[in-house]
């Protein structure tokens, strides 16, 4: 598996980098399973899907697992961004065959009889204390440039749905297939531990927009989860904890 997030191909705004990263020397692929964990580009821009199609031309066996990040939804709505990725998933199945592109929107994919991928955005939970500043400072909630119609209430509601889904999936696997190993792919960060974020963001008043403490949740405590990978924080890290690997590999701006 190759894991990467936050390519931000929509930048720089004057000259987006979709074409540049389409070239193999600028974005090499090292594994047959490529996990793109959100903030790759704008779902409203056809250039994102042109970029993704060029990746398939490099290998007849490449599989892409795509998590929708918050930036994919900029200048459009969350629902329309999801629709665009769903349509691309269907198009890939028609033109490339099934099993090449997986839009991981609360989706389970069984890679083998013993290995499963679970993917969702896993929006964070923003408390009442951080709501005013997050609403003012974060581009997600900008009426013109961010996610259209987006509110912190909707952000938190989507977090709750993602978390219920993830807990349910992992609890089912733990109970019915205890030998199965799980890789969890999310965009937002599932831990507020100090190793998961840059020290310069310690004590940030908008930290809850990026990470949520899931230590008490079934999805975090399950021994079936062997790898959890995320993006969004623009901070690379990897460590082992509780029999699993926690990893983030991000380009950032």
Automatic annotation (TrEMBL):
Question: What Pfam families has UniProt attached to this entry?
Answer: Metallophos
MF-aspect GO terms: hydrolase activity
Source domain of life is Eukaryota
Q: Which residues form the Calcineurin-like phosphoesterase domain?
A: 3-234
Protein name stated in the entry: Calcineurin-like phosphoesterase domain-containing protein
Q: Which organism is it from?
A: Bimuria novae-zelandiae CBS 107.79
């Amino acid at each position: 598996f190759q894991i990467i997030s936050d390519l931000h191909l929509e930048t720089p705004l004057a000259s987006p980098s979709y074409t540049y990263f389409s070239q193999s020397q600028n974005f090499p692929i090292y594994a047959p399973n490529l996990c793109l964990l959100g903030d790759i580009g704008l779902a409203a821009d056809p250039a994102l899907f042109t970029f993704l199609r060029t990746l398939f031309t490099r290998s007849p066996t490449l599989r892409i697992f795509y998590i929708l990040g918050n930036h994919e939804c900029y200048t459009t709505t969350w629902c329309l961004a999801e629709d665009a990725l769903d349509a691309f998933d269907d198009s890939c199945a028609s033109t490339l065959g099934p099993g090449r592109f997986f839009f991981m929107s609360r989706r389970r994919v069984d890679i083998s009889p013993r290995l499963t991928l679970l993917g969702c955005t896993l929006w964070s939970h923003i408390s009442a204390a951080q709501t005013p500043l997050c609403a003012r400072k974060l581009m997600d909630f900008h009426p013109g440039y961010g996610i259209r119609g987006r509110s912190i209430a909707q952000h938190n509601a989507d977090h709750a749905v993602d978390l219920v889904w993830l807990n349910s999936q992992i609890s089912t696997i733990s109970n019915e297939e205890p030998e199965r190993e799980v890789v969890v792919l999310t965009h937002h960060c599932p831990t507020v531990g100090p190793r998961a974020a840059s020290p310069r963001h310690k004590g940030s008043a908008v930290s809850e927009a990026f990470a949520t403490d899931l230590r008490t949740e079934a999805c975090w405590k399950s021994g079936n989860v062997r790898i959890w990978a995320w993006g969004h924080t623009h901070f690379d890290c990897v460590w082992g904890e509780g029999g699993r690997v926690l990893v983030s590999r991000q380009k950032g701006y």
